[in-house]
What does this fold into?
Amino acid sequence: MITLQLAIVFGTATLSYGSECVGKTPPAEMDLSSISFLQSYKVSGVISDWFNKNAVAFDEFANSDLISTLLSYRSGTSLQWVTIKADKNVFLYNRTIGYCDKANSSCLESFPELLRVSKNLSSMATLLEGLVDFSKTNKGFKRGHKIVAGMKGVHWVSCVKDTDGSDNLQVEVVFTDENPLKPPSSAFNNPLVVFLQVGVYGNFSGEISEQFSILFI
It folds into this structure.
């Protein structure tokens, strides 16, 4: 089982700016079916958009009763989504103005590009669950190892070609499956997912049109 802490960085850090899918690539025979989230966890990080140049800090906490996701914006706005597991009700608390009501959007809905790898954007956990499902139908290959946030991990790449070749998808994941170095938090053990990156190309040998990177620390 792969469990994880995560920070999402859509733009301030990147694993590969160029295409890993151009030219001859290894056979795509590897999925991410061993990845999962703990039922109780706490994660934090930054969500940044490469092309729109937006950055959002997040903190997510989950236990047996609820999932809480806080997004903090550069403008000073702080929005907190709280999902009650028992009845599936979701509340949105605007911490900036002190107002709370039932939510009509999910916490990651403002990043629709993530729908390319997960159909459920209600939490970081569901994002990763969707990524696992994505990898089962869009298997990838091992592209050596990468050092991410001080952790050595396996570099996994999936190349998904659009039917007309105009919207090709490159998904990269780094996980510490072979890493003997222990995570800094005693609440987590290897293997951990430490990175996810999504890139969109008109063609894999051309320029990238979208890029979103997720750093798990």
